[in-house]
Specification:
FAD-bd_PCMH; alpha/beta; D-lactate dehydrogenase (cytochrome) activity; four-stranded mixed beta sheet; Uridine Diphospho-n-acetylenolpyruvylglucosamine Reductase, domain 2; EC 1.1.99.14
């Protein structure tokens, strides 16, 4: 896992960051800049998250949700951040799936179906 800068604002935040850095293969960001970037989407709503995780695979998503749940931290899943109603911002942990979980696995134009990762935008 790649480490990014990490001034954390609470004991719960510190424990969340420490555990995610240990348990995830993807990156974790709790620095002010990353938290600011993820404090908004395409809507008018703004809410600074506690931290951001960039899961590399489904196991990372499961681990992040498990860790956050154990600490009572809400989780927001985020793809491209194009929500016009604020669904991709929140005060807890943001899971940014657009960085690593962005592949199209199957595309069936005739059946009008696709099998894609969470972060395909």
């Amino acid at each position: 896992m790649t480490a990014l800068a990490s001034p954390v604002q609470s004991e719960v935040g510190h424990e969340l960051e420490r555990t995610l850095r240990r348990d995830l293969d993807g990156e974790v960001a709790f620095d002010d800049y990353s938290r600011h970037l993820f404090s908004r989407d395409a809507s008018m709503y703004t809410m600074r998250p506690l931290g951001v995780a960039y899961p590399r695979h489904a196991g990372d998503v499961a681990a992040a949700v498990r860790v956050a749940g154990a600490l009572g931290v809400p989780v927001v899943a985020r793809g491209a951040g194009t929500s016009l109603a604020g669904q991709t911002v929140g005060p807890g942990l943001v899971l940014d799936t657009s960085r690593h979980l962005d592949r199209t696995h199957e595309l069936d134009p005739d059946g009008r179906t696709a099998l894609v990762d969470l972060g395909v935008g």
